[in-house]
Design goal:
It contains 39 helices and 57 strands. It is α+β, with helices and mostly antiparallel strands. The strands form 20 sheets. An 8-stranded parallel barrel has the order 10-11-14-21-22-23-25-26, surrounded by 4 helices. The radius of gyration is 43 Å and the shape is globular.
Amino acid sequence: MEKLERSLFRLEQGFELQFRLGPTLQGKEVQVYTNYPAKDHKFDRLKFHSLDWVYPNGQEDDCDKYCRLDLIVAGSYQYYFSCGDKEKVSGGYIVVDPVLRVGANNDILPLDCISSQTYLAKCLGPLDKWLDRVRVAKETGYNMIHFTPLQKLGVSSCYSLADQLELNPNFSLEEKHYTWRDVGNLVETVRKDWNMLCITDVVYNQTAADSEWIDLHPECGYNLVNSPYLKPAWLLDRALWHLSCEVADGKYAEQGLPALIQHEQHINALQGILWQQVFSKLRLWEFLQVSVDEAVEQFRQLLQAGSLGVTSRSSTDCRQQLKMVQDPQHRRFGNTVDMESALDTFAPHSRSPSDIQECCNCFSRRLEELNSELYKEMNCHAEQATNCIVGNVVYERLAEQGPKLGPVTRKYPLCPRYFTFPFEEMTFEEEMHLMEQKDKACHFLAHDGSVTGNNPLRNLAESGSEVYLRRELVCESDTIKLRYGERPEDCPYLWAHMNKYTEITAKLFCGVRLVNCHSTPVHVAEAMLAAARAIRPDLYVIADLCTGSQLTDNVFVNRLGITSLVRDARSDTGSQEEGGWLSWFGKEPVGAFFQPSLRPLIPAVTHTMFMDGTLNDHSPIQRSVYDFLPSSALVSMACCATGSTRGYDELLPNQISLVKEDHLYCCWNPEVQKCDQVNLKTGIMAGKMALNKLHQELAAEGFTQVYVEQLDEDVVTVTRHCPSSHQSVLAVLRRAVKNPEGHHHTDNVPPLFIPGQIEEVVLEARTIVRDINSDRRSDININSLPEYTAEIQEHIQLKDSKVVKKAAMVSKHSGVGQEILFKKFKPGCIIIFRVTLESRSREQLGALRRHLIQFSPQYQTGSLAEHSTPAVLTKPLMTIMSRLTLADMNMLLYRCDAEEREDGGGCYDIPSWLSLHYGGLQGLMSVLAEIRPKNELGHSLCDNLRGGDWMMDFISNRLLAKGGAVGEVGHWFQAMFSYLKHMPRYLVPCYFDAIIQGAYTTALEAVFKQMSSFIQNGSSLVKQLALGSVQMYGVGHCLMLPTISPHLKDVPHCLSEITCQDNQCCVSLAAGLPHFCVGVFRSWGRDTFIALRGLMLLTGRHLEARNIILAFAGTLRYGLIPNLLGPDSYLRYNCRDAVWWWMQCIQEFCTLVPDGVSILKCPVSRMFPTNVSDPQPAGAWDQPLYDVIQEVMQRHMQGIHFRENNAGPQLDHNMTDEGFNVEAGVDQSTGFVYGGSRFNCGTWMDKMGESERAHNKGIPATPRDGSAVELVGLCKSTVRWLVKLHNIGHFPHAAVTIRRGGQTYSVSYVEWDHKIQENFEKNFYISHDPHDPEEKHPQLVHKRGIYKDSFGASSPWCDYQLRPNFPIAMVVAPELFTVEKAWESLDVAERKLLGPLGMKTLDPDDMVYCGVYDNNLDNDKFNQAKGFNYHQGPEWLWPMGYFLRAKLYFAKKMGKETYDKTVNLVKNILSHHAVHLERSPWKGLPGLTNENGQHCPFSCKSQASSLAAILEVLYDV
């Protein structure tokens, strides 16, 4: 059962989400719960409600039922499910994207259309000037403004808020005080009049160190009162402050540590001073240790008072058992020992003073050892703290990339302070006394910060984290870390304060950015965002996450409902990496497959806001001023939200300081640019406006597919493609990672082939230097680089381009397109083309989409009418498909390689990969179903399609060769594929899939229309199994069924390709694919009739079932039907059970088919009228079926003895000579049918030994001679049925007549029926009574309460083996079994034989059990070599069907409660078959598996009997 908290499932509003049961949950009581609000209810993240199950076919079928959610409310929602008694088994999250609206008409702004610009709020100046300053965003094409916090700030960073509820007073004027209402009015003006949205930052994890409210409510931070575990860290922090002051005052200069630290010797001196004069004096280990004397004295008193423990343990046990008790106040030597554990660990031998003293001495030594370990633990913390302190000093004062702070001063101390100290300077000793004064200690508050590589879900300041003690924190000394606790009751003021802050923000802004998201307790952010969404349901939430793990990112996204994660394109230096990012953030690759509307929900990637620059960029201009424009183009071509920072487009020479910046942004002036104004001539603003406009157009017009290619070291192409119109926009950009003014760049750019026809150059731009007075600087405003600007051309023709040297139409294998040669395409240049398909491709594709509308309305867009439509396409495909018979469907959909080769062909072989499993559509669908959801366009099948038309020609030609209705489908494919052959090759895979998928689903629909109501109204599993009927029944090229009587009506005929004569062409069954489907090994009598009820009768193929029954009836000889149905000389009558399965199918036909009893009068053309006859032509010797049935019964009662025709190695090279002698009959005393010998195997367990090395050649592994239990059951079923038929006048024979010793005897069917009934349990049931008088071989009994596998075997121990055959008798003749005994035996079988898919063929407790079948293995092991264990353990699937049917039958007899439990068991078991069917490329069930459901490579991949038996179970359910 999956736990999906770290998997992201994102959906847009309007989707329907369905929850369906996985295989492990089917058949169990499962309920799905969610906190998604029920209709007309408000969202409460802590309130869950259950979802109702929907049954689409009206039946309580677990494989199809589902719960649904109609997603119309944005946010993050949790779901979980219960199973039986387990209240919460597993669960996950669903994130529903918000719908953003702009303008007076509330037009929707799609998330991928967003172009955001970030503004540092303090650089906007008074509120009355904001519109002039943010107009820059509007005029340069942005549609979202992101403000840093607008609240009153602390002394430093723009994210350090002094008061979360107060508007920054700097935004007001002396004559005008502005409020949040004024901000709200401005935001609404921007939304309505400018069609722009505004979002802002929220900061939940910290507050400014100078916040007034934190002084009044110090409980809102981590202090020494509510977090006493911080005392050692606080002491160290104060000691380091005093050390820093003394270093600044020069007191350590003589010890080699001056105020100005300049080299390594100073660092070495610092290390020594820290270790010797700071840590050694602080004695921090004492906070961990126990006072030994006090603990020993307390222990002594307990011993003297008589509190004795158990006998003293070893030294190792003592260390493990002794429990420490943490001092809640975290004082020196405040920890104690749990005396109960001490008394249990140390016990004196007596109460004498000497023994007590000895025991106390032992206890004391153990405490000293414990204290020593704690001393070492603290020393480890001290070593790490020393390393971190020294590392920080090296970075801040020596490193080239560091700030080089200069001498140590009180303003720039040796290391940052981790705690506030809001008191006047005093000595360290005086400060130590303050630590124990609660009214003072509560004001020593921990600063906030971060730790590189830390688990973001772990709170750094909580107990158990030693970050503050080990000095690992990258500290923000202007902030205080907030302490929320687990719930509002833990810190009421803080929760209320921040909740009000959230509500103010949500009322004004459409979205928020979570600052320090990974440092904010998740449950806090979760609660705050829930409060925000209560006010603004469609809240847009973005965040920067620096977790380094997508799975960890998903935890935050899921819990908080984050809409977009911010990614900074400039954080990487290489263009290749950014190209990879762009592919990642694109929605689909170009040429992606068309996905069905109902599809599995797969984990997604968080929506992205891709930024070309952020406020955290460090000196961006150092990269190259020429790289700004191509970087922006790269970002703008991404299929996601994009963003930038004010100043990037203006080419600011330096980073805007979040702490020190006191200049203001320039205002917009479209006319003349002054030093305090900007317009489209400033920096790259003109280029950015064009890029923003293009980005929004591409998203709005559905250009959802993205392809990125690295042409050269610094040349990248990005393609955005529209899957409906098949227009493309292709950007070519040349990066300038190194400044071209100081680095030589070649002008040689590789030529570019663009498939299709270039309509226009959308944008051509480059960064240039212009002649302007660059000395003009404003002392008030933030200044850009005025000498650089973007030169752009928009919507021009190729001939007018300044960077395209030549453009020529060329034809390549991949299609027709234009090859572009560049000139003067220098670093900093971009060119963007709009490309359409060339006219013929456009027409062909439009016509193709028009024909595909019949399969899905998604092809309506972009469809075109054509002048001349091929005749075969003028009618719906369903009209053509409806003319196909199910035998035709076998050709269309299936036929494995062996079947295809028998017809002179073969399955399609994909070079460098594999051959398809089927020549028909299923072979393709199995592969396409795997690659479609993942858009695996690099798959070999896609390569083959792009490479040529071979696969398309194979499909159509294969069907055309068949002619008739199948040939017409071939014409349809030929016509549809003709469109594909005239379009760019990169589009061929997706449209080929659309054609194949549409044709396949139409064919399946046509198939089910020809089947029974049970199939048509059945579940998806029922339908999948029913397709086995089409898969397994076909008309072979070389071998058909024996010709049935020409006097029969409705027998299908076809023209023989060999004789060119009109012959009967009845379908025959392939027993299994791919091994048993052609030649003499295709039609097995036993398999045909084990499968016939499920695959023919239940599916409604009654006429074909009749023909098969009558065809085999015509082959009757010796009272048996053939085991193998080959040419006349190869008919083998060596199985005893096939005829009884045939008889059972006639009974089922009479029962299930309307007027089914009429088959009894159908003429049967006997091939062998007598045992010694030569084969007769059809119609030469006809007799009614009921007489053939009577002959079977008569011959068995008389006794069957013969030797196989053509006996010898030429017939079977493994069998011994005795094995060719066939014997069968009826025991006159019991009525049991019997037969066989120890030399042959006449039932389905028919493995004959093959290994000369292991000496098992010619020896049957499972002879099962005597009376096999399932044959007795089948015989009883037949006799009972004949009695009933005779009584109602449908069968003229009441008895069988036999001759014995010259006398003629008559045995009535009533007598025969009673005899079997009276003797069955007497001889087959193994009772619990060890003295049972009916038991002939009590010494062989090893399991009781079961039914024997046989009776009267030549090897008596074989009778007592537990095998899965007795449930067959239970199904066909349940009257033989006592309900309670039957139920107990089935329980034993369930415990011992039941596997995931099949039934073990032998009890695992049996000494010859071997569960792994390997027919190639030849060794010395008699019971294993050459697959001798075929039926001695491997798990066969068809017996599973009979076991489950028997369970259902007798469960109903046991009562409703038992039956309901059994139904659930059956559903759960069948879920494994459903999964196998779904995942199998053969779309079938195997004949067998190895032990515990493991794959058996020697099994058929799809077996007719397996499919039929499972389908029969579903019919019974």
